[in-house]
Amino acid sequence: MVAPSFLYLVVLLLFFQTNLSFSTTDLTKDQPGLPLSLISSTSDVHDLLPEYGLPRGILPNNVKSYTLSASREFTVELGSSCYVQFDDQLVYYEKKIGGKLSYGAVHDASGIQAKKLFLWLPVTGIEADQDSGMVHFFVGALSKTLPAKQFEDIPVCKSKAFLRADLASL
Predict the structure, then answer these.
(1) Is the pLDDT of residue 149 over 70?
(2) pLDDT(14) > 50
(3) CA distance 24 to 8
(4) What gap in Å lies between CA 42 and CA 62, rounded to an integer?
(5) Rounded distance, CA 66 to CA 101, Å?
(6) Distances, alpha carbon 16 to alpha carbons 9, 19, 69, 71, in Å
């Protein structure tokens, strides 16, 4: 569930800031006023992530569109909410994901949750450490570190959660 204050901020950003908006469909048809110089390798958000020092696979494959403002605040719209399994970590992506992008990091993340034991906790930040080859996910004061190699490929979204560890408990 998205907090009403977050929606209010998104609406304010849309009206008071210049935004770059991209869709995974034909950009020239959807946004005829968009300069051709902006329609390059960044039409897919997965291609934009490495330009900011982040691996392509931190977002699932069902990205419908994204918006990136001049202040680097972003919104990603997925085709539907879904689950992705990264080794021993199950992650839930809401239909709308947001945050602030900086080189090697996402701050103030929203719309992503990680399962810890029996609880779903919001992921509040992501940092990629190029030197160690690790990606750190922040869940409040806690963090989970996973090898960046897991995020080289774009993960497939699943409509239902199923953790491999669940089999062992049966």
Answers:
(1) yes
(2) no
(3) 25
(4) 16
(5) 13
(6) 10, 9, 10, 12
Amino acid in position 147:
P
Q: Which residues contact 69 (CB under 8 A, 6 or more apart)?
A: 13, 17, 18, 19, 20
CB atoms within 10 A of CB 58: 23
Name the residue with tokens 């995974």: 24
Q: Are 75 and 67 within 8 A, CB to CB?
A: yes
**Token output for 42:** 């960044």
CA of residue 115 relative to chain centroid, distance = 16
Q: Residue 153: phi, psi to the nearest 5?
A: -95, 150
Distance CA 36, CA 96 (A): 27
Let me know: does 22 contact 28? Beta carbons within 8 Å.
no
| Of 105, 61, 65, 50, the residue nearest 84 (C-alpha) | 61
Cα 24–chain centre separation:
15
- Model confidence pLDDT, tens digit, residues 2-13: 454 444 444 333
Q: What is the pLDDT of residues 68-114, one digit of tens each?
A: 999 999 999 999 999 999 888 899 999 999 999 999 999 999 999 99
b/e for 78-110, b at 16 or more Cβ within 10 A? beebbbbebeeebbbbbebbbbebeeebbeebb
DSSP 3-state of 168:
helix
